[in-house]
Amino acid sequence: xxxxxxxxxxxxxxxxxxxxxxxxxxxxxxxxxxxxxxxxxxxxxxxxxxxxxxxxxxxxxxxxxxxxxxxxxxxxxxxxxxxxxxxxxxxxxxxxxxxxxxxxxxxxxxxxxxxxxxxxxxxxxxxxxxxxxxxxxxxxxxxxxxxxxxxxxxxxxxxxxxxxxxxxxxxxxxxxxxxxxxxxxxxxxxxxxxxxxxxxxxxxxxxxxxxxx
Length: 213
Prior knowledge:
This protein is of the alpha/beta class. The protein contains six helices and six strands, in the order ββαβαβαβαβαα. The chain has a single domain (17-212), classed as SGNH hydrolase (Rossmann fold, 3-Layer(aba) Sandwich), CATH 3.40.50.
C-alpha cells in the first residue's frame, strides 16, 4: 500500500490495534471478519450474538489511516497468524481517522485514498472472495451530541462516495448505514461525538444482520 510519505508524520499521538477472535479453539467454526475502527468494535459483539449458531464475528480494529502502510501490516497479521478461514469479510475501515487530510478538498489525497482502498480490497480478496463494505457513520459536535458536525461529516460523506464507487466497481455489496442513521431521527444516539449508545449499536447490528441473513 502506497502513501505520500506524510502518513507517519500525521499518525495520532497514540495509535492502537485491537484483534478479537471468537471461539478460538474451534477451527471449523464459520467466521466473519470485521475490519474497521472503534465504531466497528462497538457493534461487533452485538452482531456476533445476533448470528449465534451460524457464524462467529472476529475483528481487527485499528486507528491507522487507510493510506498508512501500517494498516495493511495489521490486517496481514490478523489473517496470516491463525488457522481459521473466513466465509465473509466486512470492511468498515478508513473513516474516523486521518482527517488532517481531506478528500473533500484535496484532489491529490482523494485519489490516494481511492487507490489505497482499492489496494486493500484486492489484498483482502486473497483471503476471502466474499466482501461487503459498510459506509462510514455521521458524527456530532463534541459540545452538543444532538447536533451534527457539518464540517467533519462533509469529509465523511466524500469518503463514503469513494468507497461506494469502489463497491460498485468491484460488484461488492455496499451497506449504507450513513443514511439509516441520518434519517432515523432520535432513535440513533451518540454517546460521544463519534461513538454510539448501546441501543444504537444494537440497531446497527440488526440492520447488518438483515443483509447477512
